[in-house]
Write a structure and sequence with these properties.
heterodimer; A: alpha/beta; 7-stranded mixed beta sheet; 5-stranded mixed beta sheet; globular; B: mainly beta; 6-stranded antiparallel β-barrel; 1 helix; elongated
Chain lengths: 1163, 107
């Protein structure tokens, strides 16, 4: 005997289901079930994972959804009557699945896609009824289960006899014949309560009265009884109420019986219900048989019903192609040769043509020609919009992509292998990722929808699962703990999986204090903390909600919306309920259109350059560019001064000089402390060095100690070693160290002759325990057959095994290295425009304020906020007066000032210039607090000076404050005594009475930090200087002159905190601080972490003791031994001779809570 | 209705239904079909731990409502209605409630 569960929520029913599809399918199969349903709430979020899991477990998938239904008599926009389960019928060429997809999309059509929307996810009964029949055949394709959560089920309580009957009758009247069944559920709660056997009996009788089939289910939420407490916590997270509150209402599941019970248990349950109903054995048999009959009706054929693994791309006609797509592709490739390889001939041409033939052959074989044409179309469309775009990823390995202008990396030049991207052995749609300017990403999306039609396009979604911090917060809320207390604990959880919380308590120094509290219970004997740890572990990884994937766009043909349900995204565009893992199984073509802030920053910089220097000659002079072929400058600068970044040659010496100096803050990919250390050691001289650098700075190579031998060989400290002379051509570029996937492929090929396509399959199998053994056997056998010595075979296999799984694809590295080089080029030649672009688009890992420090270091003046000169974006400006006269400076933007609204900003800019405060008020209609804030930031200082006033900024702020307090909140014109609309200058400003002391530098900096999160007037550490001198602190700019291994104290504000994976698995914490003269990168190894404890992640201002480590000719960092919180003066290690300072005096950070914006860290 | 929790010895049928019990030194026989259901526990207040793998019995416990008569004694005595609970792990029984209305007058 077997039993089929037809109502099962997986973990993908966010904040509801507990178990993963794999667990459920395995459990069902091992109990002898032949099918299992997945009916997630509100969508098909887990459906494809369920499909996969069922196929792996060898059972038939059944798919459905658990949906809310609007109350026909209530307000259709908000009132829900109950929930029903809807199952798709199978083996009808997808008619059932199609109807299910459309129905789910209907349920979301009215929602806003934004958090806190008031419209619930639900369908009307009319919508449901209309979807149950296939429009073509008018046969039923969906079955609706009326169960305990339906309006009928909910009316079972009490002694009302008629109400459930009336409601049930309404269902039968509304739905087409044969589409309704009654779902009988008992979770054995107390007699008369929801989910009790008594209610199940009533539902069973109702079904019998109306001759409607009844089926048995257990409304499953978890695979085993152990999941019940987790379900309680999820109920708490969903309703935002604590468990004690929920228990009082009572809103919790009445019992913990909702698990995937065995066939035997379900039969027992059926027996119990039938007996309680006073029915007999025949009725029990019928109940069980009807359940299996419905299951049979709903078994899905993954291939014919759901299109399993059948790639679908847009119809060629949509992109205007009428002939055979492959012929079109061949023709476009040939047309590209002239552009990409001007003047190519001889041997080079032969090699290139052979490669092209090879690629086109594979593409034709796989039938992917229209896929390439589609990607080319999108790519062309983006470039036509004037948006910077570049392909990244393994797509750069393809010559076809290079020729049809999808990628800008020449695969022949960098020796990239097509098989890493696509081969005859790999029939899944390859990924092509396109990087675009982040600021233009949404426009690009809209354009794609317009170009291909909204029936063929949808955004991809992503599942957001619980991580440690969110899990501990929600677990704490469930237990009814104090928010602040939980918040304090959450702060200390840093980069580990929630599942390992208890383990982490033993190991992590920053959790030591908390671990002690758990151990000794609370002062009041409270055991909650122990439970908190358990519940946090229970929540680990469970999906919380879906959101728009940061870059995935799904492209299909006109049937796309029959194959995926969609719901509104926050952006307004529809979003699929499927995530990236569902794409390949469902044959969906996903294009990654990734918004890259650096692309926006670079585009901005190029525009600033042209605005400041509107001719080729001026740009060449300003950027100190080479004279070029005709002496008037290089070809990549147009006559109007526009720089074509993609055409800049990759061998510019000043650019490599900048990179080697390690002053690479702001440069793409190479600005992190770890990368600055690596480029310092590696000292790149050419583009290939950048590719290698980027490929080395990955978890795999760092963990497996590939970096040190590579550097030793590169600098000639140790001789290069090759396992066998045959491998020298493969490994030469990386001095014998295996770094790239491409090298793994070639190694396989050289030693076994397996061909590159199979080699890539082998590479994919590395690290997979099940498959690796077969690969090893093959490798050893074939290599031995080719007469490689056993020790060579051993050694090479060791390398493959160790590095294969996480080496880096050289094509990725090459694609990444392009913007890296371009950003460094801009920083070397046009630093002001580049920094302005960085400020405007904030692409980096550091808080903006560190770039202010970088500008200071570069001697670029930062021009204060000015009501008449500042714009809605950062601007480069020629300084007109003062000590910096003639230099280029960067004017602060009005954007991003705390409290200043977007409309106010627009009105200020539209009304510039202003000749008085009155003029500003009248035309920009600024709110009074906004005016006061601008005054605090000094935006009126120049206006004030021009008016000839004698008061200072403090007087002005006080004056504005009085105005604000004195009169009503009305915006607009305020008349001050003696004020006339005559061109007399600003009488108001001139007449402000002086009296207050001018604000101190500390006060000004504090206002800047508070309102803009940057310290412009002076560095926020400057006011600490006397204290630091007393402590004997060394500044960042003088570190480089110190001997290796010198013990020093450094101090500064945190700007970066990283815990990269390290060799041996021991955690290393990198903390970078900025002291106003530069950045100090410090490393905390295990012992230092022990002594620093909670300071590691909890402090903004740090004092660090450590010893200097020279990392390269221009690089130095600190190996930390101890840290202090600079704000806690009493704890600091003053030299014994100096008297203690009790207090450090006022500091700009006092009372400012914007930790993330200032320190780049939300700890 | 009184609320207790005291340990009690129960003998069950092969299918797990209580048949007889010993309470306060006296033997009783179950005299009517028992009713069984599950009730929630305030596990977050009652338990110190709830780690993954705790198994069943954290969220709810099994309740049996039985009617019993003294095994030895006059047949005139009225049946007693008791709510029992069985601990998941140990299988031990505890007496939860004695229903007032049906409490024997002699007690």
């Amino acid at each position: 005997m077997s039993f089929t569960h037809l109502h099962v929520s997986t973990a993908f029913s966010a904040h509801y289901g507990v178990s993963w599809p794999e667990e459920l399918a395995q459990a069902a199969a091992s109990d002898g079930a032949t099918a299992l349903a997945c009916t997630d709430r509100d969508g098909l979020y887990g459906t494809i994972k369920h499909l996969k899991a069922c196929m792996a477990a060898g059972i038939d998938p059944i798919v459905g959804v658990d949906l809310a239904v609007f109350d026909d008599d209530g307000d259709h926009r908000t009132q829900v009557a109950g929930r029903v389960v809807v199952l798709a019928r199978g083996h009808n060429n997808g008619a059932g699945y199609r109807a299910l997809c459309r129905l789910v999309s209907d349920a979301h059509a009215r929602t806003s896609g934004k958090a806190g929307g008031t419209v619930p996810v639900a369908v009307t009964r009319a919508e449901l009824a209309s979807r149950t029949l296939d429009p073509a055949t008018l046969k039923p394709v969906l079955t609706v289960l009326i169960g305990p959560d339906s309006d009928v089920g909910k009316a079972m309580g009490g002694r009302r006899y008629l109400r459930p009957r009336t409601l049930f009758k309404q269902w039968l009247d509304a739905m087409p014949a044969g589409t309704v069944v009654a779902e009988i559920v008992s979770q054995l709660s107390a007699p008369g309560f929801p989910l009790s056997t008594a209610h199940a009996v009533r539902m069973l009788r109702l079904a019998e009265e109306h001759h409607v089939p009844a089926i048995l289910s257990n409304a499953v939420r978890y695979c085993a009884a152990d999941g019940a407490p987790t379900a309680d916590v999820l109920d708490s997270a969903r309703t935002l109420k604590s468990l004690p509150e929920l228990a009082g209402e009572p809103l919790l599941q009445p019992t913990g019986q909702g698990w995937l019970k065995t066939a035997e248990q379900m039969l027992g349950l059926g027996k119990e219900i039938i007996t309680a109903a006073g029915y007999g054995a025949a009725d029990l048999k019928q109940l069980m048989a009807q359940t299996e009959a419905l299951a049979d009706l709903c078994r899905m054929d993954p291939t014919s019903d759901m299109g399993w693994k059948q790639p679908v791309v847009p119809e060629a006609s949509v992109i205007g192609i009428t002939r055979d797509p492959h012929m079109e592709l061949i023709q476009r490739c040939h047309a590209g040769i002239g552009r990409r390889f001007p003047g190519i001939g001889g041997h080079d041409e032969k090699t290139m043509m052979a490669r092209l033939e090879h690629e086109l052959g594979i593409i034709r074989n796989l039938g992917f020609s229209s896929y390439f044409l589609t990607v080319a179309e999108v790519s062309r469309m983006i470039q036509d919009m004037g948006v910077r775009a570049a392909a990244r990823g393994s797509g750069a390995s393809s010559l076809v992509n290079y020729l049809i202008e999808v990628s800008h990396v020449n695969p022949l030049q960098h020796d990239l292998i097509f098989e890493r991207f696509l081969s005859n052995d790999r029939a899944t749609l390859p990924d092509i990722d396109i990087d675009v300017e982040s600021a233009e990403r949404h426009n690009v999306y809209r354009q794609i929808f317009e170009r291909f039609g909204s029936e063929r396009v949808t955004l991809m979604s992503m599942q957001n699962g619980y991580r440690a911090r969110g899990a501990v917060r929600d677990a704490g809320m469930a237990l009814g703990m104090d928010d602040d207390e939980v918040g304090e604990i959450a702060k200390q959880l840093w980069r580990f999986s929630a599942r390992k919380f208890r383990e982490a308590l033993q190991e992590k120094p920053e959790l030591k204090e908390f671990a002690g509290r758990v151990e000794h219970k609370d002062a009041d004997g409270n055991q909650q903390l122990d439970l908190l740890v358990d519940l946090t572990e229970r929540l680990d990884r469970l999906p919380r909600h879906i959101s728009m994937h940061p870059c995935g766009v799904i492209l299909g043909d006109a049937t796309l919306l029959d194959r995926t349900p969609v719901q509104p995204s926050g952006l307004g565009l529809p979003m699929s309920q499927f995530d990236k893992h569902d794409m390949d199984p469902m044959g969906m073509l996903k294009l990654d259109v990734l918004g890259v802030r650096m692309q926006s920053a670079m585009a901005f910089a190029v525009r600033e350059v042209i605005r400041l220097h509107p001719s080729k000659a001026e740009v060449v002079a300003a950027g100190r560019h080479p004279a070029g072929p005709d002496g008037r400058g290089p070809d990549y600068i147009a006559a109007d001064g526009r720089i074509d970044l993609n055409a800049v040659p990759l061998d510019d010496e000043p650019t490599y000089e900048l990179i080697r100096s390690t002053h690479t803050l702001g440069c793409f990919q190479i600005e992190s402390p770890g990368q600055r250390e690596l480029i310092g050691k590696l000292a790149p001289r050419e583009f290939n060095d950048l590719i290698i650098d980027i490929s080395l700075f990955r978890p795999g190579p760092m963990k497996s100690d590939m970096v040190r031998p590579f550097l030793e060989h590169r600098h000639g400290f140790a001789p290069e070693v090759y396992p066998h002379p045959d491998l020298k051509p493969v490994l030469q570029e990386t001095h014998g160290v295996t770094v790239f996937h491409e090298q793994i492929l070639k190694t396989f090929n050289v030693m076994t002759g397996c061909g590159l396509a199979r080699a890539d399959e082998f590479r994919r199998a590395l690290g997979n325990e099940a498959l690796e053994t077969a690969v090893e056997e093959f490798f050893r056998r074939e290599a031995r057959a080719r007469n490689y010595a056993p020790d060579v075979v051993d050694k090479v296999w060791g390398t493959l095994k160790a590095f294969g799984s996480f080496g880096f694809c050289k094509a990725h590295g090459a694609a990444f290295a392009v913007p890296t080089y371009q950003s460094a080029w801009l920083k070397a030649h046009h630093p002001e425009a580049f920094l302005a672009g960085l400020w405007e688009h904030d692409p980096g890992m550091y808080p903006k304020r560190l770039l202010v420090a970088e500008a200071r270091r570069l001697g670029i003046p930062i021009l204060p906020l000015d009501i008449n000169r500042s714009q809605a974006e950062y601007r480069v400006e020629r300084v007109e007066e003062g000590k910096d006269q003639g230099k280029l400076g960067i004017r602060l933007s009005l954007n991003g000032i705390y409290g200043l609204s977007a409309t106010e900003l627009k009105r200020i800019v539209a009304g510039q210039p202003y000749d008085s405060l009155a003029d500003l008020r009248a035309r920009s209609r600024l709110s009074k607090p906004s005016i006061r804030r601008l005054a605090q930031l000094g935006a009126f200082d120049s206006l004030h000076r021009e008016a000839g006033g004698h008061a200072n900024r403090a007087d002005l702020v006080q004056h504005l404050q009085q105005l604000q307090a004195g009169k009503g909140a009305r915006k607009g014109v305020e008349v001050l005594e003696g004020q006339l609309s005559l061109p007399l200058g600003d009488v108001e400003l001139r007449n402000i009475k002086p009296g207050l002391p001018a604000p101190t530098l500390v006060e000004n900096v504090r206002a800047e930090l508070d309102l803009m999160a940057v310290d412009v007037s002076s560095h926020l550490m400057d006011s600490h200087r006397p204290l630091l001198d007393k402590l004997g602190v060394t500044t960042a700019d003088s570190l480089l002159s110190l001997r290796n291994g010198t013990e020093v104290l450094v101090a500064g504000v945190r700007v970066a905190t990283q815990t990269p994976p390290m060799r041996g698995g021991r955690r290393v914490v990198f903390i970078s601080i900025d002291d106003g003269t530069g950045c100090v990168d410090s490393v905390f190894f295990h012992e230092a972490q022990e002594s620093a404890g909670p300071l590691l992640f909890g402090t903004r201002l740090l004092l660090i003791r450590g010893t200097t480590r020279r990392t390269g000719p221009r690089g130095i960092s600190l190996s930390a031994s101890m840290a202090w919180d600079l704000a806690r003066t009493a704890t600091l290690p003053f030299p014994e001779s100096t008297p203690h300072a009790d207090s450090d005096g006022p500091h700009p950070l006092d009372g400012i809570s914007r930790a993330l914006a200032i320190t780049g860290f939300s700890g | 209705m009184g609320m207790f929790s005291e340990s009690i010895d129960v003998a069950c049928s092969p299918s797990g239904q209580p048949e007889s019990l010993t309470w306060a030194g006296r033997d009783y026989l179950v005299c009517a079909d028992p009713v069984r259901w599950y009730e929630r526990r305030q596990w977050w207040a009652e338990d110190a731990r709830a780690p993954l793998g705790s198994g069943p019995g954290v969220v709810d416990h099994e309740i049996w409502r039985i009617q019993v008569l003294p095994a030895a004694g006059n047949n005139a005595s009225e049946p007693l209605t008791l709510d029992l609970t069985r601990h998941v792990g140990s299988g031990r029984w505890r007496l939860l409630r004695i229903h007032d209305a049906l409490r024997p007058r002699t007690a």
